[in-house]
Amino acid sequence: MLNGYQDLLVWQKSMLLVKLVYKIGDTLPKSEQFILISQMLRAAISIPSNIAEGWSRNRRLEFIRFLEIAYASSCELETQILICEDRYNEINYLEIHSLINEIQKMLSKLIYNQKSTSS
Q1: Domain residue spans in the chain?
Q2: At a CB cut-off of 8 Å and minimum separation 6, what does 3 contact?
Q3: Is 7-25+32-118 in CATH node 3.40.50.720?
Q4: pTM of the predicted model, to two decimals?
Q5: How far is CA 60 from the centre of its chain?
Q6: What is the band of 83 on the pLDDT scale with cuts at 50, 70, 90?
Q7: SS3 call for 9
Q8: Which residues of 37-76 are buried (b: 16+ CB within 10 A; e: fewer)?
Q9: Is the per-residue pLDDT at 119 higher than 80?
Q10: Region 37-53 average pLDDT
Q11: Dist. CA 7–CA 106, nearest whole Å
């Protein structure tokens, strides 16, 4: 039984993802602070935030909508990480790619399950 959004494994993993993005941002040059780092943090922070907001709505269709927004943000972040990787290839991106992929799979399954139970 879940007591709240903080019990969702996908939310927990999304919070870890935010920490990894901060860590990568700390290694990038200051010139990227208001460009790439800012965009990556916005997208990363949006993932657990949308999961939490959707959960708090207490309506299945709204929860699904916010999960879909979280998924879209994960795709946005994935793209930004690829751009970052292309420019700064000395950083190890394996962990963040793996975590994004895992979160996307979890969100897809959660969206599917929520849609299945609402019909």
Answers
A1: 7-25+32-118
A2: none
A3: no
A4: 0.94
A5: 20
A6: very high
A7: helix
A8: bebbbebbbbbbbbbbbbbeeeeeeebbbbbebbbebbeb
A9: no
A10: 98
A11: 14
